[in-house]
Amino acid sequence: xxxxxxxxxxxxxxxxxLLTALALAIFKTLLGISTGSMALQAHALHSFADFLTxxxxxxxxxxxxxxxxxxxxxxxxxVQFLSANFxxxxxxxxxxxxxxxxxxxxxxxxxxxxxxxxxxxxxISALTAEIMHRYLSCVAIRCNSPAMQAAAAxxxxxxxxxLAVMAGVFLALLGWxxxxxxxxxxxxxxxxxVGIRVxxxxxxxxxxxxxxxxxxDQVREIAGRHDQILEIIRLRGRRMGETWDIxxxxxxxxxxxxxxxxxxxxxxxxxxxxxxxxxxxxHMTFLPG
Length: 289
Known about the structure:
Helix content: over 70%
Number of helices: 8
Number of strands: 3
Shape: elongated
Low-confidence stretches: none
CATH class of the largest domain: Mainly Alpha
Order of helices and strands: HHHHHHHEEHE
Strand order of the largest sheet: 1-2-3
Distance between the termini: 38 Å
CATH topology of the largest domain: Alpha-lytic protease prodomain-like
Number of domains: 2
């Protein structure tokens, strides 16, 4: 039930993020061209790249919901890490392209101050991106979705870079024409930082990086409540997209029968699932004490 609600919430968030990115891209393109702001035009190109990458995110969250098959017996959860990696790489490559273009414009002396209306465009962009960041962050935490986490980080980068655009446009209007291009360079560096972080986190998931320590501590606490468990020999976990795969090796009394061991395994699994809704796969091995 919880996972079904998470899927609906996640899908709705992905569609909202996709359509918002498209609307912002069109808005900033038209305003950037009409006002002559190079920083706003660079930001618009970034928004179009966002729209394409968010389409990939939407496809990945849909695919990750498919049940396991004979070809993929552990499911499709890790496709979200691939999606996050694609987003991070796209952000990094796009930011480096924007950086190069603005450096080239500065070098050739192609400097013109933008119109004041560009300030309004940057402000609307910043507010919209920050709202989307907070919304997607909430969805990512509740649904444990790496793809939504990447999308939220992307929107925070957009909000920060929009503020840089505002500062550049404002200074350019005061007579420092190069400020608009310097703001575009700062935008590129901010987006590059976000892209590198997203790539790093997605690689951690693809390489079966450990789940958060506090989650393992909760599992250890739950197992410790069962008197028949003498010792936790090994406890580890990995992320399978939105779910956790937990592996336990436990020492139990050698006098337990097969039926009693089975009942213990069922009780422990139910206890963990009741506390950790994203723990989809729990593997237990019992060793006699």
